[in-house]
Batch of 2 targets.
Target 1
Amino acid sequence: MKFTTGHCLALPLLAGSLAHAASIERIWLSHSSEEPSHLVVNWQTAKPGNSVVEFGLDAHYGQRVAQEDSVTLHHVEIPLVHQDVVYHYRVSSGEAVTADASFKAYPTTELRVVIIGDWHAKAVDLSAIIKAAPHLLLTAGDNVPSLHEPGREGLKAFSGLIDCQPALFRSTPFMPILGNHDRELTARGAKPPEHPVYDPEARTYREFFALPGDEWKWHFDVPDFGVRFVALDLSHIQDFGTTWQTCHAYDEQSVQFQWYRQLMDRSNAGYVFTLNNEKQTQIFGRTKGLWHEQFRRGSALVTGFGQFAERAELKEGIPCFNTCIKGDGAAYKDPQSKFFASEDNFLLLTFKRGEPTMTAQLKNLRGDVLDARVIEKRTGRH
């Protein structure tokens, strides 16, 4: 696991389970493995210290993982060997110990996954998402507004995101993907300046989060439900090669494309959901359909490019969803759009083990279903 001594956001102590842990400021869960056999417990402390996680099936715990490195940004991986149970855990660093917290183990019958786009670290009412009780929370990029907002520079931007929903992040594994805002170092301006505006390597993002693989791109499988999620680094691709460049290379010889194609070649998952932060028509036009040849081998494409809810239908029956937690922005309708709404929204994916189909629902933040799409397991695309 990686460790770092990054800076912390100076905020009042969180209420509830962290109130008496004077130097532990926030906790969140994630995965750095490529399947749910392990989970990472992450937290920040005001001062450097060691990292200890106690966990088990009740508040007596019984298991313990410790790291002795003295850090302020803590990432500790624990094994998950049970399903259909609730795990209890607490973390400590030095003399600071949190109260008991819990999270759901992965299920055996029904898996629920929520995808959010364009969060921008907004403190909005996510009670509809909490009610959906997801086992996994993903994003479609643009998790924070920038890395230079006053008071939320650098790592503080992501600390602020966690502080928006402390209970949700403490109880639900969170796996974000990159958008351009997640590595915006300075204001963009009206034209490309002499200095780079973005960090294409996404160093701050990769320092803060514990994710699989290279972290700027990753895949995560839930084998019991035959599903694979793939995170790509595609955003503002038209700015590649300028000081506005935000993402990694995406041409046919690029590391990213070669990795994705090989991943699709090897994948025998029944469902493959590809996540990115770019408009699918932009990708098609800039690469002359290169990426779409691979997209069509999967089950669906999910993006957070626009500030609206949308489902477009690509060739061979592949849906492309746009999801955005603030959905009242400009309408950049896809020419193949089948559903469109200017509403705050999230995407809920529901998988039932052994079933030949799954359901993808765009829901507003009141929990109303805006659009539903049944997706069949892949047969012959891979």
Target 2
Amino acid sequence: MSQSVKKLDQLTVTRFIAALSVMLFHGGRYIGILAYFPMLTAGPVAVSYFYVLSGFVMALAYYRPGTRFDFRSYGLARFSRIYPVYILAFVLTCIYYIDLMAKIKSDKVLANVFLYQAWIPEFAESFNIAAWSLSVEVFFYVLFPFLLIFAMRRSVKGLIWASLGFWVFSQIVHSILKVRFMPESAAWLAYYPLFHLNSFLLGAAGGIWYVSNAPQLKVNQSANRFLLLLSLGVILLLLSLRELTTSFPTSFSLDNGLLAPFFLIIVLSLAFDTTRLAQGLSHPWLVLLGDASYALYILHIPFRWMMEKYLARFAIPYETMYLAYIPVSIAICILVFKYIEVPARDWLRKNSHMLLFIFLDVLLIYIMTRLSFVFRLGDEIVSYRRTQNFALRTGLVIFFLSFLVFQFYKTSSWRSLAWAVLTGTAALTGLMYFAWIKGWVEGFPRPIILMIAVFVYSSIYLSRFLVPFLQPSVRLNIKGNSG
């Protein structure tokens, strides 16, 4: 990442403010004093800010005219940045829905695992209802390198005007579809990735302009502070009017980038700020909150659902539970950032070659589980469809977690593999039995679970020898030593 990005710590805490707004929107906007301050709970609008900031920061990090774009490093950086914590949130959501996991259709599961749910109306809010925005962000990640290559061949002024033109076009098309042609699909239009692209493009164009002009610009700090306060005032006024008046126009939506130009002004104003405001916003504790904002954003829904579910037996008033949930979630997400997000990101970037083997192992677990059911049940497998689905979905998670716990990807040891498979099999056996007595599945297939264990161990063990392009550093350590 460029030095310019590192110096803009004053922007980092704004991510936390936006994430907190999304958190308060989901379950807290009608509680106590929050009901009278809609600007604090404008979650969907805060998502637009995320997209503007994302485009801005990515432009700062990657806009280097005259240099060749490194697709491999870029893809690895983006994947390691969002996917580990995203999949953690997905697993926690599945645990919340554990009694339904055998019945949920596979296409819905796959849409969430591979982050394309926002493109499909009925899947946009499936599982973790905050995850649709990550699906949109992945679309931006895929598009960004090509946009950047295009941008390097154009003038900065032309890019600014093009992004503004697209913003106007996007707002008009969204309004027409919402009011005249697809009023019944207004909710889905709010999630559709193409209608958030305007925010990202404005942010990216602003970032390119900043990189190109910031070194030689002398900014009047008083005028800069005025633009910051003016933009904040316009945003807060429009949010308040939308919630507190019945005559607010509904033809245009504030949730699909309508406020993006004002967000960009805020980002640029803070980026140019050299006063005590920037120094205060760059305090290490505030920067830490901003760094943990992604974990807070993607984990707050499963956290709240689980708290509601497991505290319901104690008859705790919802408002009391929610007020406790906010600081607890923030504290947990700081721990997730420090001890899961950062270590996972750093390990993946240093061991990118292991992604192939992780994918291979996940695929083998899935295939071996299915083969176990086919070999044991044959034509009767139709009668045990829910049992198979449950074993497939929970087995993938259990065995993979066991590999991590026993550090299989660090040691490449047959002993760590054996312990991981034994532990995973024991956990899967207990969970399948629990699902059977609860009536979630049709039966408790003990012979099949044993077959799964044998097949998973054998296939992964052999894969380390039979795949011809394996690197020596990841071949299985027959002696069981660390390596």
